[in-house]
Amino acid sequence: MPAVHDEGICIRHWDFSETSQTVSLFGRTRGLVRGLAKGSKRERGAFDGGIDLLSRGEFGAILKPGKDLATLTEWGLLEMFPRLRTDLAANRAAFLMADLVGRMLQPEDPHPALYDRMVEALRTLGAARAPDEPAPDGAQALLAFQWELLRETGYRPAIEIDAATEVADFSPEAGGVVTRGDPTGGPRWRVRRATIDCLAAVDAGRPFGGDAEAVSRANRLLAAYLRHVLGTEPPTMRLVFGGSPMHA
What we know:
Layout: E1 4-15, E2 21-27, E3 31-37, E4 56-62, E5 70-79, H1 88-104, H2 112-126, H3 138-152, E6 167-171, E7 176-178, E8 189-192, H4 193-204, H5 212-230, H6 235-241
Parallel strand pairs: 3-5
Antiparallel strand pairs: 1-2, 1-4, 2-3, 4-5, 6-7, 6-8
Helix pairs in contact: 1-2, 1-3, 1-6, 2-3, 3-5, 4-5
């Protein structure tokens, strides 16, 4: 069976032996691929000395119908994100993105737009910079990723509200903003106009020129909604938001 080739991000890995790894890769055109990389940790070979977590590379894999694990045949490193090793906040945000991809997507279900958004976010979070250089806006990068993840998986929240509305209700059961008289049960979260405007800008692909607090509230809202969709709170989410994400 011939190998398929793709580029991907390593979202998880485990040591299989002293010289081999089991890895989960988020491929651009193949989606999630779990595979065994025999001999990947040897200095010389087809794997560039190992497959590092949150690195991007080109890989070859033999996919076996009915088998949980593919056989990885090669890995060529394309990109590392150095600040993820030195900036705790950036590291935690990147781990959250990898965790959410692993939880929300099915094996071999490609989402190239989400893949591109994740690469963009990792570049923003993980770019090397001089000590006196200001940090890029990682919060906006995480927000754009969360929105794309929800959109790609069919959970894009409804955010349409009347122009005069300053405070709205968000129902996770209904999947977005609802009117006060909506009969949908479950919790209701109060959402400010600035938060909705922030999400509307992300949805349209426009930079959001509002305040950082609105971006933070929007991030927490989407994280809380993802927690509802998953039915559990990933530990990585708690690390990023310092506790359970709340409404906005």
